[in-house]
Amino acid sequence: MPMTDPLINWSSIHTAIPEVYLVAAVCAVLLIDVFAGDKRPGLTSTVTLLALAVGAALTVTLGHITHHAVLFDGMYVADELGYVLKLAGFLVVAVVLLYSRAYLEYRKILRGEYYVLTLTALLGIFVLISANSLLTVYIGVELLALSVYAMVAFDRDSGIAAESAIKYFVLGAIASGALLYGMSLIYGLTGTLNLEEIAVRLHSPSSLGVVLGLVFIVVAVAFKLGAVPFHMWLPDVYQGSPTSVTLFISTAPKIAYFALTLRLLAHGLQGTVLEWSQMLSILAILSLVVGNTVALVQTNIKRMLAYSTISNVGFIVLGFVAGTPDGYTAALYYTLVYVLVVLGSFGVILLVGRAGYEADKLDDYKGLYQRDPLLALVMMMLMFSTAGVPPFVGFWAKLRIFQVLWETQHFWLVVISAAMSVVGAFYYLRIIKIMYFDQPTGDAPATLRSTGVRLVLAANGAAVFILGLLPSGLLDLCARLIH
Q1: What is the pTM assigned to this prediction?
Q2: Which secondary structure element, helix H or strand E, spans residue 326, and what is its range?
Q3: pLDDT tens, 124-156?
Q4: Which of 144, 194, 244, 365 could be 124's S-S partner, Cβ–Cβ 3.0 to 4.6 Å?
């Protein structure tokens, strides 16, 4: 049985140190920006990176937990899964901010609000990761969503960014309403907000009210993940946002929404796995088919990667369709691998771009190998990995999904997902062909030559290759966290 501790004491506080620290860090960064941001424009970004490093160190020192503990009157769960995902969140956001700084400087939008919103979004991610109540789930979802809405509209001079933000906000509000309505039905039928108690009280076959609540919850989760047919916002937001914001949206929140699906569906509603897994299987297949086929005709690389995200979300959802701990392990493994690959992909796009040159068209990458061999090499490795080509880590992520589907006798899902993987390989390989075999355009500016950023990007690409050669370490870690 999990340990319960309803009182707020030191053990509760130090277990929740990532969230407590982030609240203090947000206030500190905001004050520093207000009083010193105008005099020293780069100070806020440096302080934010330092704050993330300190937060990760405090989490390792004080927040490491190996057992399952429920704190704060059942609203907060502390376990090793949450510990690892929060460390991953600190790392991913730090790399995102590192890649983004030059982009923000060139476009004269290097403002302190960007960093405050990033930290607030990270706080929402952490709340979701440790949510053990319908109440904390909703708080985490809204804290993350409201921060991201503001980030999408961050470039005030861009009309397309404002349009994307409004579209995202309106559709996101509808999804939040669906989530709230679904959770209210589950609460009304079970009489509790606690996810562990809900898991005990709900069993298959479910009543009509429970199924109706599940439908609304699955719709909201699908919207947050970007699964078809609730994907309408994703391509427009990816294309319309500043690329640094697109980089953030495509990485760290994916960890949060994996945690949302795991805590809410796989754990809280585990008694109704038969019902929600059938709903998710339809969403997964639609996402794979629509994402891969529409990506084939895109000429904007950000929009193409948006449809790639939709297809990859299909693979993550397939892990949950299996409905077993092995399936959830495969979904976690795929999520971490995907975040790592996308982090590098948009990092390359940020480094290729310049002031007045967004580098968001496929033609902008013609002959990139001749202009910058390092960026072309990293992008090639990342595209091979996303396409599922061995020995890169993306191959093992896809293979693990196929294995769990086969073990749970979802043979038709294996066939469809394998076929869609072949279709998807075409547009990833097209980018490699453009970079290595097409002649460069004469008006492309030089790429960013910042040594530190290029070293991090090279390490990002190397990680994709090394984890592909030695996949067992990360796989074993994911299995230990889930089981």
Answers
A1: 0.93
A2: helix 325-352
A3: 999 999 999 999 999 999 999 999 999 998 877
A4: 144
